[in-house]
Amino acid sequence: xxxxxxxxxxxxxxxxxxxxxxxxxxxxxxxxxxxxxxxxxxxxxxxxxxxxxxxxxxxxxxxxxxxxxxxxxxxxxxxxxxxxxxxxxxxxxxxxxxxxxxxxxxxxxxxxxxxxxxxxxxxxxxxxxxxxxxxxxxxxxxxxxxxxxxxxxxxxxxxxxxxxxxxxxxxxxxxxxxxxxxxxxxxxxxxxxxxxxxxxxxxxxxxxxxxxxxxxxxxxxxxxxxxxxxxxxxxxxxxxxxxxxxxxxxxxxxxxxxxxxxxxxxxxxxxxxxxxxxxxxxxxxxxxxxxxxxxxxxxxxxxxxxxxxxxxxxxxxxxxxx
Length: 322
Prior knowledge:
CATH class: Alpha Beta
Strand content: 5-15%
Strand order of the largest sheet: 3-4-2-5-1-6-7-8
Structural class: alpha/beta
Number of domains: 1
CATH superfamily: P-loop containing nucleotide triphosphate hydrolases
C-alpha cells in the first residue's frame, strides 16, 4: 500500500472546478489497523502500538476512525475530547490540528472519533478525500488509523489509502475466516478503483472459485497479456502493490502463535498474493486489568508477556520500508 492508493478515496474533479487544496505531506507513514469484526482487540492494539512507537522516539498521532462508535480515548485513559472528527467532517473546525488532544504520554496525541454523530459515521466521497489529505498533513512521524470493524466501503477506503495496512485477528476459526473476508474485500475494492471493470469482475470470480480455468489472479494477468497487454500491466501493478500484514492477538498456545504464518501461507497458496505477518501478542490477564484501569497495558504492565509482544510488533513496524 502506498500513497498512490489514496486515489481510491480522492474526489472526482469536474472540468472547470478547482482541484482540492494541496496540503503539505508531513506525516512520514500512515498505518491503518483493521479487522473482520469487533471484539478482536483492534483498538487496544492501536492504542498500545501508538504508545510503543512514541516511546521509541517517534511523534505519533493515533486517530479513532471507528466513526459512530469511538472508544479509543478510553483505551488511552482520557476523557471524551470536546473536539472530534465529527467537528472536522461537519466543517465546524477547518483543521485537524484543532482536534489534536494530548494523551499524557510524551510524543503521542489523539484525534477522537464521534460516538454519537451520524454525520461522521458515513462521510461522503469528497469528505473522505479531504480527511485523508489532512491526515497526511499532520506533523507526525506516524499516523495510526484505528478503523471500524467490518468491510464497509469507508473502512476499506481508509485501509487502502494508508501506506501499510494491518489486519488484527484472533487464533480462532471464525476470526480467521473474518480476516480472510476482510482482506479479499479490501483487495477487490482496490481492483475496482485501479483496473477496468471487466478485469475486476474476472478476478472477483477467480477469488470466489467460480472460474475453473484460472487458479489465482496471476493467471488473469497471463491471460490478459495475450490480448490486452495494458490491462495486464494494470492488474500486475495492483497485485504487486497489495501487501497487508497480519497481527495475531491473544495467542495462548504454541500453535496459536503459528496461526499468522499459517494464514499467510494459505493466502499465498490459494490466491498467489503476499501476506505479511508483523507479530503476535500473547493472551494476558494484564490486558483486561489495564482496560479496567483505563490505561494502555504498556503503561499498566510494561513487563507483561503482552507488552513484550507489542514491543516486537513496534520494532517490526519501524523496520518496514516506506
